[in-house]
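Slack export, channel: ligand-projects

TW: morning all. Re-posting the request from yesterday since it got buried. We need the structure predicted with the small molecule present, not the apo form. The ligand is pyridoxal-5'-phosphate; the SMILES is in the block with the sequence. No rush, but it would help planning for next week.
GE: picking it up
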Amino acid sequence: MLMEKYFNSLGENLLSIIKLLLLIYNKLLKFLYIGVKEVFMEYVYFEGKIVPEDEAKISVKTNSLHYGTAIFEGIRAYYDKDTDKMYGLFFKEHYQRLFQNMKVLNMEIEESIDELIEITKELVRKNNIKSDIYIRPLVYFSDLKISPKLIGYTAKITIYTYPLGDYIDINNGIKAKVSSWRRLNDNSIPPRLKVAGAYVNSAFAKTEALLNGADEAIVLNEKGFVSEGSAENLFIVRNGKLITPPVSDDILEGITRNAVKTIAEDLGYEVEERHIARTELYVADEVFFCGTGAQISPVVEIDHVKIGDGKPGDITKKIQEVYFNAVRGKIPKYRHWIIEI
Ligand SMILES: Cc1ncc(COP(=O)(O)O)c(C=O)c1O
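GE: finished. pasting the full token output, ligand included:
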């Protein structure tokens, strides 16, 4: 009897101890989980606030999702190891272009350009990033209504960031293919706009290039002149002169394109904006793509034709060098291109 009582109370005590241990173990797991989640948490800007990514959700009924009427930007921030600092590149210019684009789509949002710059800086800081990143603001009609139109809807902006090294190769030179797809034109879907729907055209061209063993597409416009890549502007070099299609040749008015023009002119090269015929690509001394994502990417082969000696050209390399120093804050005269985050 006594023994039975003794064993019963021992059993109860053991059970309580196990329960207590399980509770501690559970709490510890929870604590660790939250801790780990905090460290790896990605924050995004959504509906006027910076929130954890998993809290930023839109409905499947969202109007712009169906009609491609979202306007977006692609911005970069670079990490400089020497100064241990993040530098935002052309923040103002990107948000200015976003606002120009929004104007064409009759979109208005609550945030101003200056506020968006501050929000973006805060977002990058909050995500605690120390690497080169891409920043993607997207403005969309958030109404849960059908009908492809640009009036009577409310526009909202969301912004997210993600680490991005080289979007396409910048060292060895890439292969390009002249696309069988023609570039959109200003009277259908204006290529001047970074509007989601226009990127169906880019997706067709890029996919065709990839399926044919090339790295990138070169797209001709309806007139048959060279316009640009799937997500980059294009320069050719002939006899020491840089040539790029004019803004009326169905291109996105690239911010990097402007930077390249400035660098080239500062290096003493002449830059001409004029139509480029397809075969000029093949006989050019050098060809390169440029863009926020692409940076400066030499093209060494087009449609199986070797460009120059089939290696990245000297002028391209010089421009690349200046560009990469400028984006990491190493060149005082281009310091105004970047902001410290
Ligand atoms: C179609 C297209 N052209 C050109 C560019 C290059 O523009 P930016 O230098 O402003 O990034 C991009 C990239 O955003 C693009 O999507």
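GE: first-pass observations. The chain has a mean pLDDT of 92. The chain has three domains: 8-40, 43-163, 174-327.
TW: perfect, thank you
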